[in-house]
Amino acid sequence: MANISEYEKTWREMSSSHWDQAMYENASFFNRHQVSNTDFIARHAVVNSRGKPIVGVEVGTGTGKFLKIVLEEHPSLFKRLIGVDFNPNFIETARKAVPDADFTLGDCRELKNVLNDNYSEDMQDSFKVVFSVNNTHGILPEKVRDDINKAMADTTSDSGMIIIGLWNGNSFGDAVQHFYAQNDHLCGSLQGASFDWDECKMVTASNYTTKWTKPEELGKMIDESWNVLDVVSSGPMLLIAAKPKNTKVQDNASGEAGAETEYYYDTEDASRFYQNFWGGENVHIGLYDNLEEPNESKDLETVFKASDKSLTRLLDHVYDHMGGLKIRRAMDMGSCYGGCAREMAQRFACEVLCVDMSKVENDINRERTLEAGLEKLVKIP
Ligand SMILES: C[S@@+](CC[C@H](N)C(=O)[O-])C[C@H]1O[C@@H](n2cnc3c(N)ncnc32)[C@H](O)[C@@H]1O
What we know:
Rossmann fold; 7-stranded mixed sheet; 3-stranded antiparallel sheet; 13 strands; 44% helix; 18% strand; binds S-adenosylmethionine; SAM-dependent_MTases_sf; Methyltransferase domain-containing protein; Methyltransf_25
């Protein structure tokens, strides 16, 4: 790995056009994966912020192009989007190119101070989603990475979470051929470059250094004190969602009422009641019109059918209101055992994000979704 002064020289002085051309222009190797990257951040921001205003902070924001995509894909999700970088060329370009985000020149080893000095009001009472994407972590010398990890944890420990987007070591060979060899304005010529294929590391003659991370090495890139919430492999990217272990309790449930609800739905009694007596699959108010008169031996069957019927009616309404537009994504808030989510996924071939605070219900939902072979469409974070 390059030493700290070589890394600083490369990145503090790089011109904006060198980064943009390689990364965002010329039908880049990475272009088509950026949207799933922003979706991963948005999904975790929604699920974990629990109604608090969300401030997004990009560590090592470069020319701001990634934040531009975030704004295009999720225009109203963030109360504020902030990019921090220590390269003045990049910050100047970003401010012009993405006027709807805020950009600050600063060293992310001092992230908390940089943010408090410039955005102290936004830092209070907000849920901070601090992210490092497109392999920023993979260009950092180990000591700098450790310092930045600590700074990210410090910034989010009162209320927030961390997302890291790395480049997957399993795509390293492909990238050397189709990305680095095509972008010598970024990394210099590959003549004379040194490669460590086991470690997926490259140092070029002009000292551009990169490390790609294999899934089994993820632990090296993050702080051991974080709770990892999710890891996803998407094209050449590995995406990690985490929270520092000392995050305040309020983030883990929406206050006292949230904790009580969570507790109630996780109890064995509630679980038995909802599964055996109230619908089982669809736990909501049923529609009893035109069903046979209840009779004792058929009572349960009647309740189950009535529950199914109200779901069918609800989805008919959804379909009618879409006026012929295709439903691509839906969110089921309070998804319970996932009956509604699976029905939607099957009927509309759409992706459904399930949100529920009961671990017991989420576990059952995961099991049933797997059994139904719908795990690609029905997501239960
Ligand atoms: C691989 S680039 C990613 C740029 C941007 N995230 C994107 O997706 O387009 C890494 C970025 O991190 C910045 N960087 C590296 N170390 C930094 C530090 N200690 N403080 C602030 N920025 C840093 C570099 O200047 C560069 O813009």
